[in-house]
Design goal:
The structure is a single chain. It is built from no helices and 11 strands. By secondary structure, it is an all-beta fold. The strands form 2 sheets. Strands 2, 4, 5, 6, 9, 10 and 11 form a 7-stranded mixed sheet that branches. Strands 1-3-8-7 form a 4-stranded antiparallel sheet, with no helix packed on it. The protein starts with a strand and ends with a strand.
């Protein structure tokens, strides 16, 4: 599956953004999806994940209560709604897909496809 991420931008602290990741190719509903991010000088980390049906989700502790991952299998798109953004959320955000399995342990090597990344910058 090919992934195209979009929706990043510059926002003030406390603001909101919604990232989108459009998929093309193989059956989107066969994939668990996840968002990762990489801040300058830091390793890439997992942010949120969602199973194929959208029923099960995962969030890293630092974004719980602020971020919401969702998917629309009819539109082949996964979203990341980000509210109450903080300067420490500044990063390049990547979407990733894992075929025919759940998100597992969210090891980057477990994911089959990656989007190109979209920059999120939160000013204080």
């Amino acid at each position: 599956v090919q992934l195209q991420a979009s929706g990043g931008g510059l926002v003030q602290a406390g603001g909101s953004l919604r990232l989108s990741c459009a998929a093309s190719g193989r059956t989107f509903s066969s994939y668990a999806m996840a968002w990762f991010r990489q801040a300058p000088g830091k390793e890439r980390e997992s942010v949120a994940a969602i199973n194929w049906s959208g029923i099960a989700t995962y969030y890293t502790d630092s974004v719980k209560g602020r971020f919401t991952i969702s998917r629309d299998n009819a539109e082949n798109t996964v979203y990341l709604r980000m509210n109450n953004l903080k300067p420490e959320d500044t990063a390049i955000y990547y979407c990733a897909a894992r075929y025919n399995k759940g998100w597992g342990s969210l090891e980057q090597s477990d994911f089959d496809s990656w989007g190109q990344g979209t920059q999120v910058t939160v000013s204080s």
